[in-house]
Amino acid sequence: MSPSLLQDPEMHFGAVTFFAKEHKGETCGSNGLPLTPNSIIIYGRAQILKTIKHPNLCQYLDIIRGKHERTVIVSQYCGEQLSNFLNKGLFTILDIKRIAYQIFSGLNEIHLKKITHRCLSPENILLQENNSIKLFNYGLFHMTDNGKLVSFPIIQLIYTAPEVYLDGVSGNLSNPKVDIWSVGIILAELVLDKPLWQSLKLGQRIRKILSLVQGNTSVFERIAREHNCYEKYQDLSSDLKVIIEDCLNILPQHRPTVAEILKNPIFDKFKDVPDTNRSKICDKFEKFTIEELYHWWQLAGGEVLLELKKQGLIRSSPPILSVPKMVLIDGSILGQERNPSSLYDPRVIPMPLESLYQRFSHINTYSYYPLIHFKSEILASVEPSPYDAEKLPLVIREKDPEYQFHRIILFRRLLHGYPYTKQEIFKEAKRDIPPLLRGSIWASLLNLKSNYEQEYTVIDKETPTPTDRQIEVDIPRCHQYNELLSSGEGHKKLKRILKAWIYKNSQYVYWQGLDSLTAPFLYLNFNDEAKAFACLSSFIPKYLHNFFLKDNSAIIQEYLAKFSQLIAFYDPVLANHLQTINFIPELFAIPWFLTMFSHVFPLHKILHLWDKLLLGDSSYPLHVGLSILAQLRDTLLTSGFNECILLFSDLPEVDMEQCVNHSLESYASTPKSITARSHQNEEYEEITLSDIQSISVQQLNKEKCPRICVNDVIALIRNSPNEVIIVDIRNPLQFNRCSVKGSLNIPFSSVKFGDINIENIGTYSTVLKNQEKKIVVIVGTEDTNLELFPKYLLQCNVAKVCVLHGGFNTFLPISPTILVQNQM
Amino acid sequence: MANRTPAAQRPNGSTQGKICQFKLVLLGESAVGKSSLVLRFVKGQFHEYQESTIGAAFLTQTVCLDDTTVKFEIWDTAGQERYHSLAPMYYRGAQAAIVVYDITNQDTFGRAKTWVKELQRQANPNIVIALAGNKHDLMNKRMVEYEEAQAYAEENGLLFMETSAKTAMNVNDIFLAIAKKLPKNEQTAGPGGSGQGRRLVEGDTGAKTAGNCCK
Ligand SMILES: Nc1nc2c(ncn2[C@@H]2O[C@H](COP(=O)(O)OP(=O)(O)O)[C@@H](O)[C@H]2O)c(=O)[nH]1
Ligand SMILES: [Mg+2]
Q1: Burial of A168: CB neighbours in 10 Å, binned 0-12, 13-18, 19+
Q2: Distance of CA A20 to the CA centre of its chain
Q3: Which PANTHER family does the record match to this protein (chain A) (predicted)?
Q4: Cis ω on the peptide bond leading into residue A419 (within 30° of 0)?
Q5: Between the CA of residue A803 and those of A703, A707, A748, A787, B178, what are the distances in Å?
Q6: Interface contact B82-A586, CB threshold 8 A
Q7: Cβ contacts (< 8 Å) between B60 and chain A: which residues?
Q8: CB pairs < 8 Å spanning A and B
Q9: Residue B155: its pLDDT value, please?
Q10: Which residue does chain A place closest to B2, by CA atoms?
Q11: How confident is the model at residue B96 (pLDDT cuts 50, 70, 90)?
């Protein structure tokens, strides 16, 4: 049955909770900004823990901030505490050696990452059904900045090394050798099969440890004697005994490092066959991961805080009880009861998974192995989608556990095959992108290379530059409502990425807004700075080519001119109104395009917008701009200049899904040459030939309607003749000699441009009037005025007017078949 | 947000009160608190994490001076030097400017002086310029002496105040002082003149049309 796939004994998680230290008195830092709450600093510091994956370590899954500086840590939690197995004669010496080996392996992994456990104890060591070991809670000391961010000491009584006590319990001794001591004590307990000094009170136990400092015989031996286990000590084979005695050296510098211990031959038999043969390019494939299980659990209604409340770990006490008796003018507080819950509570609450199992019980085993490649298109098209949610709104799909199950299973397979699966990823991303895998999916849509990490590592991100000041004042103003980006880690990372980008792209400079542009990538790849950088580095050339030149005015001017033309093309009424009140895109659209909207929308909206942006080219943002205007259309049409500009100074709520759909529609139905620019990056866009892009900005600004290139016109005539009207404005003589089949002749000279009335153009006015569907292509010659007539149509509110670039003669060499003689 | 514009356009009861509209621009180095000053003045708020300004932002606020209602059309500009090329578009035709520096940062004061020079050379010759030394609440980190700035302001005929967008100190006052100093002898059209923005646009000779109110 299928649930068995989910019900893996190691796929369980639990939560612990504690309070971060509150800032007392002073609330402002030296820069005048409020001090970052310690819980946010912890939140930022703990993120990196989520990346640590090792068979002997419980994986960190989530960090949640509750009220009043509460921090909740969610982590893999499976098996049983080692302390439960003591005193039962359960372990042979071989077992103990294996356990020792696995503890050291786990420790080695964190020590390599410069993380000290500092609260190792048999409670924090979990024995699995298959007899392997996982360390738990190893990140507490690191995430609290060596204990500085919490008000309780991070110690484990007898397992804590004596130098920690001598340093003062509030000290933050972080020498990894303290962990070696702890393992020594734990191994001694295992060998002697006895919890040590159990009958003593807490304070006495600490005193016991300190008393060990005196005397120069073996600590292990003294412990054994004290617990009446001298024989066990004596009988112990010397190899293990030596290790324990080494670990229990009083002087930290005499204790071996984990790496040294692991070299000991007694562990050789536990070492895996070295997997040197495994390909480096390809990570091991897993059907799904514990992060994903946690994600589905949450979508299926799992709530960590709720579970903690149910189990009594979070208790709400009436607020009146926490009111201080006296507050001094300097802000210090007197007579406030110390809340016992502000102390460390070691309890771990396992999260119940039954309801998730239930919810997913009907999912077939083969849903875990979706078919990706079909030999036959026909087969592919009849394959039903595993869970039909397509018609639901995006926000609902993202919250639907089952839908996300299928999407994630599918995408993780596709991502595993990247770059060979690029096309499939693109195709699936068109539907939607599962939020959990968004970072990786974006990276593949941006064609990230596998060596991105090396590239980032070698870039100088530290040397001070004159730009630093600007970056430093911008970062604390960049999406600070977001916990990741407002944490100290977030600030540091953002600064490094920005500096790296500027260093790497010496032809460009830092423009305010680059910070906002980087934010989504950092947010999605918080634990992989290099990837965030690589994403930014491939995003900019594609969508913002040359926007960050020191003098970018030509690029921006052209972009804005194209934007104006696009508005005129789709919404002449609005365009005319904005023109009348002189409301030009320069006044409001620069932050839109320069930051691809990342400066104007909150992160969650940017993510949905960029999900689609990444599937399009650099003209897509123009359509996004258009659809924002469309949403505000009614207000704009009834407003004057001041009201309009006010509206944009503080952009009202924009319905992102509607905006995205609207922009995708116009993007798809707009011939490419309409939005072609001379400054677009040729590498990314197939240019529909001709020199349509070589028009100067001055010229562009004069032309109210966009140009279209001959290929696009011919494609329209051939593929969708009912969606195009060709208006030939040459004189009747020329028209009769040769013209496009079915085109209308409205000689330029026959129109009185004086007053704005569509009837003035004669008999064809009814055809042009009141139509919105068809593209109206104005065809003239080099010497007919190609500005006046389209402008006139625009003023008469005729939609979708464009001008054939190069005039009638461009048809001749390319496509004589659509031309006829004597049409009149 | 059009309705944010205060209803004070009809001054309390009196129908014969004058209504004047002035264009005011804020200039100064990035992060000195330009946007914060405007936010304080217009909405009475302060955001610690005020977003940076790209391009420019536009807001309006009305103040009452005796029998005159003064409506400020405020352009808050981007501080970064790079956006400098956009600045003339905003100060052209402005009747008033507030040049802001941060009293905890000497460089920003230097930058403020450059702005003053540029305005004196390029802007409307009758422009009223005020110098604001912002972040007064961070006094213990002061790097620009009050006297120094005061002397400079006097030399150049500028209004001068130290302000704090955070505590609201002198924020309304500086706008009021500007309002007082602006010439209001000739009354014009009145509120709701859509199309006022025209003066902003290049090609429209800003300086000429700009003065058509209150001159
Ligand atoms: N302490 C203090 N901080 C301020 C004051 N005014 C602005 N700030 C802060 O300074 C930073 C920059 O302000 P902002 O208004 O964005 O500056 P702008 O770039 O000149 O518009 C923000 O973090 C503000 O919170 C002030 O009067 N006192
Ligand atoms: Mg600003």
Answers
A1: exposed
A2: 26
A3: GTPASE ACTIVATING PROTEIN AND CENTROSOME-ASSOCIATED, ISOFORM B, RAB GTPASE-ACTIVATING PROTEIN 1-LIKE
A4: yes
A5: 9, 5, 14, 9, 51
A6: no
A7: 642, 646
A8: 122
A9: 96
A10: A643
A11: very high
